[in-house]
Structure formats: C-alpha cells, structure tokens
Amino acid sequence: MKGESRAHGDTSDSCGEREEFVRRSKETMNISGYTSSKLTGLKLYGQTKYDTSVVVKRKNENYGRVTEMTDSYTAYTIQDVNYFDYPNGKTVFVMESSGLTEDMITAEPITKEEVLFGVVSSPEIQSQIFIDRGKISAFEGIQRLGEVDNMGDLVSYGYGFFKIKEQE
C-alpha cells in the first residue's frame, strides 16, 4: 500500500521530517551576546534618571523598563530582550527564542515570468516631497519636541539638535 501511494507522489517522509523540525522548533532556547548599552532609551525626565517602578512608553506602547540597579550591574528589558550593563562598560543581552515555527514555513513555489526577463521600466514618481532648506521656523524646536518620547531620544535626536545641560 505504501509503495502504491508513493507512486502517486507520497511525500510522507519529507512531511514527517518537516513536522519533526517544527516540533523541535517549539522548544525555547536562550540567545545571548554582547552589544552596546541601550539604557539611555529608558532615561526619564527630571531628577530621577532611572526608576524600576516606571514602564517607559514610546508611541503609546510599552517600550521597556529598568528591572534592577545594583553596584555590580544594571538590568533592564526593552521589547522582551533582557540587557545587563556592567561597570566595566560591557553589555550582555539575553532573549528567548523558539527558532522557526510552523507559521514561518510555507511551501509555495517561486515562479518567474520569462517574458519579463530583462524588462526595465523608467522611474516613476509616486509622491512630491518639498524640502525646506535654510529657513528656520520659530516653532521648529517645539514641533521637533513632539517627536521625542523620552530622555534617550532627546539626547540622540537630530545629531544634537537639542542642546542639553546636565545638572549635578
């Protein structure tokens, strides 16, 4: 019976391998490595720069929060990635991943129309953009301030557009 269905294109062996691969992919694993510190993205306005009880929001969505501050490290989470900043300047990230899931795998053929090989069309303008150069509006600073969500954005916005004085 199996030989008979195989003659009609049975792919049970390859499907079984795919199911085994997807089943193993649902097991979670930790991924970690070194990166640069992302702590300034969680900096708050005012006297208290970092607060473990405050969830920082960006564009009205939860962005991250500082989870622990000790002498040996600072722990924080940004978009489900855990970061640990150490006094020696190193930052370690740790995140949980399940690898590939069944939703990420599709079995669709890629087809190309041979008639269109080598056909190139001329560039098409889809929108008109006006760039105002050299004129500074009196309200430009206020308008740009609306694009900033937290202290980290304020520091890094526009290659130093905002002049920030730090008080000790």
Provide a descriptive summary of the structure in words.
The protein is α+β, with helices and mostly antiparallel strands. It has one domain. Helix content is 19%, strand content 21%. The protein contains 4 helices and 6 strands, in the order ααββββββαα. It has helices at 2-7, 12-25, 140-145, 151-156, and strands at residues 29-35, 56-58, 61-69, 74-78, 81-85, 91-97. A 6-stranded antiparallel sheet has the order 1-6-5-4-3-2, with no helix packed on it. Strand 2 and strand 3 (61-69) form a beta hairpin. The protein is flat, with a radius of gyration of 26 Å. It starts with a helix and ends in a 12-residue tail after the last helix.
Strand content: 15-25%
Number of helical segments? Answer: 4
Sketch the topology as an H/E string, one letter per element: HHEEEEEEHH
Spatial separation of the terminal alpha carbons: 82 Å
Categorize the overall geometry: flat
Q: Return the structural class.
A: alpha+beta
Low-confidence segments, given as residue ranges, are: 1-14
Annotation, overall tally of beta strands: 6
Report the mean per-residue pLDDT as an integer.
77
Q: Can I get a quick summary?
A:
Helix content is 19%, strand content 21%. It is an alpha+beta fold and 168 residues long.
